[in-house]
Amino acid sequence: MKDLRKRINKRLQLNNEGSSIVTVLVVMALCMILLSIVLSTSLLNFEMKMHARQSNANFYDAESALEMIRMGLVADASDAAAKGYVATLESYEKLTVEERNEYFESIYAKNLIKALSDANQSYYKLGYIESLLGDTAKSYNIDFGAELTTTDGINFLNVTDDGVVLKNIRVRYTDEDKYINEIQTDIVLGYPVMNFELGGKTPDLAKYAFVANECVEVLSDTSVSGNAYLGKNDVSEDKTSEISAGVKMDFNSDVNIKEGEIHPRVNCDVIAEGFINVDGSLSFKENDLWLHDLQIDSGKLTIENSKCVFSDDLILAATKAVDEEDKSKRVGATAKISGEYYGVGHGNTADDSSAIVVNGLKTSLDMTGLEKMMIGGVSYVNTADYNLDNTRDDIMMGESIVIKPNQRAYLVPPDMIAPGTINGGVNPMLSTQYVKLEDELKQKYGEDDYKNHLVDFATADATIFEGVTGYKTVSYPIVNNNKTITMTYFFMVFDSAETASKYYDRYSSSEINKQRLTNNIKLYSKTDNSIRLPADIETADNMDFYYNGTILKSDESKLLLPRRPLTTEALDTMDKLQQQQKALSKKLIKDYASLSELERSQDVYDNLVKPMNTGFTDNKYVITEGNYKRFISTSGEGAAIVVNGGGTFVLSDEKIASASAFLDKDGNAHPGAKLSVVIADTDVLVTATSFEGMIISSGKITFQNIGTKTTIESNPALVLKALSAEDADGVMAVDYLRNSESYLLGGVASDKDTGSKRALSVSDLVYYANWSKR
Fold this sequence. Notes:
Distance between the termini: 85 Å
Strand content: 25-35%
Low-confidence stretches: 52-59, 255-265, 745-757
Mean pLDDT: 82
Number of strands: 42
């Protein structure tokens, strides 16, 4: 029995059939368990990654929506900075360097507050900020997209040392699968870093409606808003600025004063280095006028509430017959002036002595609206074309405001003309008689000595003729009944304007002479009181009225106002204005001391614009003669054309609209865009009905839009954007201006999405603060 158990046990030990299956089953079970764990883990990991990807996508959608808001605010910052820049330059002279930056920041902040805040300026407009979301907004996409809310519903707008801050902005983005993500932040619109130190040496060129280097010709009604330069006009070269008969040209300072816009009120400058001739209607409203001399030929001049600075004369000149068959129907020149008037020329020649001259029949001069008047010079008898010896040696008179026939007061008394001769004793005399008088004296005294006997001052009363140093002869042609006769006049010469004025005072005190003067005044006057002066001008202690010569009035009750000699303070004022005027006529700035010798010798155009074909070493900037370059900003808000010769450039409505086809630096056109800057090294003919921007011409600008009024208006912000627009080669219109970098201070006028290498990117001004997400 025992052996049987042993044998059975031994057999069982040696029999292992079926164990492999068990092992396989066990291993398979373990593998299934491991596989289940791996699959489960992988699925969990996949689900986690999908969730993370969706979360990240949702987050970036939210961030993209927030970036849409930021870029919209960049545009507002750019506009506010451009307005602040222009406003600061307009107040430049009144502010220190520190004050300029403070003033800029205040204007920048005020314009941002105006654009972003609601009626309560402590809160920003949620509706406006939400509109910047564009096509990312949930309302645009209905079921998904971005929504704008605020933390605790509080949309504070704060002004801090860092800039204008929009507090508590919250953007919630819902995707198509209803996933939600949210970003909360403040947005800061920081202050641009500006440099206004160069402003005094660089003209406020963007404020100019036009700069005509040679002259202006106005052939149709034209209205101008903004600064203007009317040229260096040279009469001898037939380059006089002309306003034709029946044409009206208006200047006013309404530029930049848009409804509701924050902007200081500053008069616009109108500058002319040379002669302006008006045979139509010329009006200025709230301007600062810096003129050389202006002549009204049978036209109308209106200067309203302006500051007038004349380096030479204001002349009411010729008289025109309305009906050639009836010469009695005549129209004279009229002028009405209010504000301040400064005739700053106080030299000893006709060219540098300021006066007001009534030189035509039926004229009218109304100066009752003047609050200040300083006239530093006196009038002269013009001898430019009539001296017997063909020399320019004009004859000084004693009046600061004069009526032409008064020059007879300065004639040598007839009894002093060659006394004791047959042909003497007359002044004036026919030129044929003068020749006979010369022959008579030559026979008596000889060829070399006869002139010493034409006028005899030996017996003159020294108290009456004090200051008389000699005489001059002038011959004038006179047309009568279509026949021309020539008269010779003998004029006294004085050693100074003061002695001439005193002589005239003594002369007019005679009742006989006073009556003669009165009769002459009536002949030249449109009314019995054609020269009207401010009521306060005769007040003895009035410090606002100075005139270096006497003033002839048309009021018979008091024919003459004695001279009020210029005080030291008045002379200082006039000298300062003279220096400012000289600088403006060379570079459109007021600091003459800052001009180099080269700038003082050049004209305005050469001081503003570089030579287009020789002023560059890099060929990409060169514009050969007869060609041009075109520029437009990537926003389409400013377009410029730079033209080098090729004949007169015609600025028509069609040419202005052609900017819609200009390609920006990215190769895009902008439908609806308009030309806003023209820089032309040639003449410009303006036939457009309206133009907003700036025109610069090296020659003449002609306004000719027959039958329709032309409106020219400057727009500094638009001009600065056009000047800073780049083409595909990285060239800007501003590159053709001298000191070009000065016009882009801080880059505030650059495109809204600028990447300009030469200007600060405005997008850097707008950034996030206190940013978080969930």
